[in-house]
Amino acid sequence: MREPIVKLCGNQSLSDTAKTASSKASHLGFIFVKRTKRYVRPERVGRWIQKIRPRQKLVGVFIDPTIDELEEILHFVPLDVIQLHGNETVSQLLQIKEAFGLPVWKVIHHQDGGLEQMDVFKGVADGFIVDSKVEGASGGTGVRFDWEAVPAYRDAAFDQGVPCLIAGGIKPQNVGELLNYQPEGIDISSGIERENKKDIGNIQAIMKEVEANVASIS
């Protein structure tokens, strides 16, 4: 198994970004959804990126964005991946990919029909995030789902030739349990925070578990 993708998401400040960028994570995430608690203004993120110059790939998280909205954010932030958390359709994904030429990851909420939902986006989505289904929330809840379902999602994405990241309720105390199911990637926000700020101790603990898991199966 190759080393998993690790996305440290929900960076809200220069300090947050400096901490996550100092890690061996592969991706850093920023939330550009105005009605959410971790929303960040793109011009600020642009300044942080210029100052820190992280080596990680940058992921922008959106819910049902317009092309104009994406253009504005990309003016400030050199995103590598667009992550969609809303009710976007296949045609909308194709439109976004055509407009910007960037990989697009689609969030699937774990529920009956989750695998069928992945199949809808076959050949269109460049990756998937599987998150918990929480009424009234699109993500960032810190609630985990039944990880026994992880191999089915992982294998379905593998068959499509794209990565699948697991999100929801991952923290240092349980990431080892999740890694036993060998997901291709993990997506963490609240689990690397202390008092709503990124915590270097939690980040290091997560990365240590990831490295130990890779070593144990390699």
Short key terms for the protein model shown above:
TIM Barrel, alpha/beta, 8-stranded parallel beta barrel, 218 residues, two-stranded antiparallel ribbon
How would a crystallographer describe the biggest sheet? 8 strands, parallel, barrel
Q: What's the helix count? A: 8
CATH topology: TIM Barrel
Q: What's the CATH H-level homologous superfamily?
A: Aldolase class I
Total domains, how many?
Answer: 1
User: Structural class of the helix and strand makeup?
Assistant: alpha/beta
Radius of gyration: 16 Å
Major β-sheet strand ordering: 1-2-3-4-5-6-7-8
Assign the CATH class. Alpha Beta
Estimate the global geometry from the Cα principal axes.
Answer: globular
What is the count of β-strands? 10
**Whole-number average pLDDT?**
92
List segments where confidence is low: pLDDT < 50 over at least 5 consecutive residues: none
Strand content: 15-25%
Helix content: 25-40%
Q: Per CATH, which architecture?
A: Alpha-Beta Barrel
The N- to C-terminal Cα distance equals 7 Å
Order of SSEs: EHEHEHEHEHEHEHEEEH
How would you describe this structure to a colleague?
Keywords: Amino-acid biosynthesis, Aromatic amino acid biosynthesis, Isomerase, Tryptophan biosynthesis. It catalyses: N-(5-phospho-beta-D-ribosyl)anthranilate = 1-(2-carboxyphenylamino)-1-deoxy-D-ribulose 5-phosphate. Its EC number is 5.3.1.24. This protein has 218 residues and is of the alpha/beta class. It has one domain (5-217): Alpha-Beta Barrel (TIM Barrel). It is built from 8 helices and 10 strands. The protein has helices at residues 14-21, 42-52, 67-76, 90-100, 114-120, 150-160, 175-179, 200-217, and strands spanning 5-8, 27-31, 57-62, 81-84, 104-109, 127-131, 164-167, 185-188, 193-194, 197-198. The strands form 2 sheets. The protein has an 8-stranded parallel barrel with strand order 1-2-3-4-5-6-7-8, surrounded by 4 helices. The protein has a two-stranded antiparallel sheet with strand order 9-10. Helix 1 (14-21) packs across helix 2 (42-52) and helix 2 runs parallel beside helix 3 (67-76).
